[in-house]
Amino acid sequence: MSDPRLAKLAHVLVHYSLGLKEGDLFQISARPLAAPLIRELCRETLAVGAHPFVDITLEEAAETLYRYGSDAQLQYIPNVTRQLLEDVQATLQIMSSENTKYLSGVDPAKIALRGKAGSELSRRLLEREAAGELSWSITLFPTQAAAQDAEMSLTDYEDFVYDACKLNESDPVSAWQDVHRQQQRLADVLKTKRVIRLVAPDTDLTYHTGGRTWLNADGKKNFPDGEIFTSPDESKTEGHIHFTYPAIFAGRAVEGVRLVFSAGQVVNATADRGEELLHAQLGMDDGARRLGEAAFGTNYNITRHTKNILFDEKIGGSIHLALGQSFPDIGGQNTSALHWDMVCDMHEGEAYADGELIYKDGKFII
C-alpha cells in the first residue's frame, strides 16, 4: 500500500514547486527505488494535461563508466541529452540512491573531470530558467541507504523527510506559501546590507554582498527547502571558517574542513579526514576556490545532520557556503564546474550585517 504522503508530495511538486501546465514536457530523473513516487507524479502530471517523461538511471552504470571509461568517454555528452534539455519545460531530480557510497572507490580526479564536462548543461539549464522557459527542482525519496546515512530506521527517516516537507500539514501548499512570506521579509532586509560577518567557534569570516540580491528558497528549486541565499562578491571574502558537519561529495565525507580566505580566494584548506578529495575539487578549475553562494538555513523542522546536503544545508540555525559556481541571475560572476555546499552550525554563533548584530544563536533577531 502506497504511503498517502507520497500523493501529497507529488501534488506539491507538480502544482507549487514546478507549476506544470497543460502541454508541458516534464522530465522525471530518478533511480529505480523511487518508483512509488514516480507513479504518483505521473498520475498528477497527466491530470493537469502535461506529458511525463521518466528517465531511470542506474548507479552500477555510472560506477562502470568511472572505473573503465577513458577521459574522452567521461567527458562525452550525447546530443540527445542536450536536445532533451532544450525540449523540456520542467525537470525534477529525485534523489533515491540504493547505495550512497557507490562512488567511494572512484578516483576524485575522474569525478572532477566528469563534473567539469557536465557544467555546460548546468549553465544551459540556468539560462533557460532565467528566460522563463524551464522550471526545475530536486527532491528525495526515502531509501534504506539514506536512512542508514542518517543513522535512522527507514520508518523514522520517512517521518523526518515528510515532516521537513510539511506534508503532515493539512494544506502543505499553504504552509510553503507562509514560508515564502516569512523568508521574503528577511531577504528584503539582507539585500540592503553590504558586508556580512560570521563569528562562531573557530570561525571569523567576512563576505561582501553589495549589489547582490538575496533569494528566498521557499520550496520551488529544492523540496524540502528553507534558506535565504546570495552569491557574494568573488574577490572580497576574508577570514577563516571551520565547518561543523562533514562536507559530502559524491557520497564521500570530508570531515573537519577548515578554509582560510584572502582576497576572495581559498589560500589554505585542511580537513581531518578526506583532505585528498578536498584538494582535488579545489583544483578543478580557477573558480573552485571562490565562493559561489552564502546562505542561512531556516527550516527548523530539520534539526539534525543526515549526511544529505538537500536537508543539511536547510538546518534551522545553520549557515552554509558553497565553493564554485555562483548564480548569475542574482549578480554572481564566479564560474566553475564545482558547486560544493558546506555547513556550519550557528547555535553558538553570531552574524553581523554592516556591523549590526542581526543573528544570534541560530536565529535572526531582526
Put the structure in a nutshell:
By secondary structure, this protein is an alpha+beta fold. The chain is built from twelve helices and 20 strands.
Annotate the secondary structure layout.
Elements: H1 4-17, E1 25-30, H2 35-47, E2 51-56, H3 59-68, H4 71-74, H5 79-87, E3 90-95, H6 108-117, H7 119-130, E4 135-140, H8 144-149, H9 154-164, H10 172-190, E5 195-200, E6 203-208, E7 215-217, E8 222-223, E9 227-230, E10 238-242, E11 247-249, E12 252-254, E13 258-262, E14 265-270, H11 275-282, E15 291-297, H12 309-312, E16 318-324, E17 339-345, E18 350-353, E19 356-360, E20 363-364
Parallel strand pairs: 1-2, 1-3, 3-4, 4-8
Antiparallel strand pairs: 5-6, 5-18, 6-10, 7-9, 9-15, 10-13, 11-12, 13-14, 15-16, 16-17, 18-19, 19-20
